């Protein structure tokens, strides 16, 4: 058994444990990895610093017991981040457990089953890419060849590629291979190396077998094929071979074939033979739908209210990977705080480092909040909260008005700083105060005084 399989057994066992909720499992365990078991220690890689303490304090016994069950030995647990491995993990003393067939690299599809069409959320920005991907999946080698998917990072290209591969494998006997262009380069480079590992392994045959003996080739991030001309020309031959046999080729890139200047013209021309589809950044509606789908998949749909979803959808940008990161962070934060309910305040606190409001303590918005709060004898936390009681809501409206007239912050930015309000709510508040000043002399005086205190007039 190797470490990966030990750990996947470990994870599936503890997932079933009654004392571990699915939220806790998801938050604290789902992204862990076993680096190695060595010299009485189990080195476990965790995604964030907070996992180290939380796991050690709360789950030490559970993990140790489970490891004893799986391996028969007792290990001291060492939690560490991926980037700490090099500096903190000593060279192995014990042999790595045997891996089956270790000298014959096996060709496998490299497909990740977690990426499917079912969990790909479709909206305006990606519906063409989705439709093209599905029709290729249903008719490999027949509809669009090659299919060329391109768009910025984090928009779902890799997801769609795996979805195509998984679909084809589920519906036919076709052999599918997914590789990144880096893997392709590595495999190719090995064919040129003198074989000195005594295994008599023929990498040229391996390469041919791997890349020619397939029905569907998915090659991800082709922009990294780079200027390596030998590799490019090998890819060109591989492409032609497969293409002439009506094998399906699917390529992704961060830019269109015409903008892939590092590639030779003859390759770019071939990409033009098929279908090129651009995948665009998701709009607000799609972002919200993706967030909903992700939290439903984690069975958290009842724990995360709508305003929090809107907050994430409005403030984390258009990269879906970042949206996912925000959800993970929020859930981790709420478990760490031991709070059962995730509300907007908690979300704002959890995400304050990731959401770039550009607002710091020293700037105008913070100063306005402070001065207005002091004037009305309420706390800055309250003015920044969602609380609706009138002794807080009214000063908040005044402060939003002052931010609008005295700083250059936009309505959405101001909204973020005042309880994550929608920009239309901010606009409405500003208008309301503007109108009231005209008819209410007292209010006009208060505003004048506040403006003087703020002192940016
Ligand atoms: P790219 O390859 O374009 O950089 P990925 O396919 O790796 O992007 O997507 C980044 C993350 O966002 C993945 O976890 C993926 O599952 C998720 N994702 C992207 N688009 C969608 C979508 N439309 N529906 C669901 N998840 C998505
Ligand atoms: Mg990708």
Report on this model:
This protein has helices spanning about 5-15, 20-30, 50-70, 85-90, 125-140, 155-170, 180-190, 205-210, 230-245, 265-270, 285-295, 305-315, 320-335, 345-350, 365-375, 380-385, 390-405, 410-415, 425-440, 440-455, and strands at about 35-40, 40-45, 75-80, 145-150, 175-180, 215-220, 250-255, 275-280. The chain is an alpha/beta fold and about 450 residues long. The chain folds into 4 domains: about 5-90, 2-Layer Sandwich (GMP Synthetase, Chain A, domain 3), CATH 3.30.300; about 125-280, Rossmann fold (3-Layer(aba) Sandwich); about 295-350, no CATH class; about 365-455, Chromosomal Replication Initiator Protein Dnaa, Chain: A, CATH 1.10.1750.10. A 5-stranded parallel beta sheet has the order 5-6-7-4-8, with helices on both faces. Adenosine-5'-diphosphate (ADP) binds next to helix 6 and helix 13. Adenosine-5'-diphosphate (ADP) binds near residues 155 and 158.
H/I helix tally: 20
Q: C-alpha Rg, in Å? A: 28 Å
- Sheet/helix structural class: alpha/beta
Number of strands: 8
What is the total domain count? 4
**CATH 2nd-level architecture of the largest domain:** 3-Layer(aba) Sandwich
CATH topology of the largest domain: Rossmann fold
Task: Going across the biggest sheet, name each strand in turn.
Answer: 5-6-7-4-8
Beta fraction: 5-15%
Low-confidence stretches: 95-105, 357-362
What topology emerges from the helices and strands here?
Elements: H1 3-15, H2 22-29, E1 33-38, E2 41-46, H3 49-71, E3 76-81, H4 85-88, H5 127-138, E4 147-150, H6 157-171, E5 176-180, H7 181-191, H8 203-212, E6 216-220, H9 229-244, E7 248-253, H10 265-272, E8 275-278, H11 284-297, H12 306-315, H13 320-336, H14 344-350, H15 364-375, H16 380-383, H17 390-406, H18 411-417, H19 423-439, H20 441-454
Parallel strand pairs: 2-3, 4-7, 4-8, 5-6, 6-7
Antiparallel strand pairs: 1-2
Bound molecules: adenosine-5'-diphosphate and magnesium ion.
Residues 157-158, 220-221 line the site of magnesium ion.
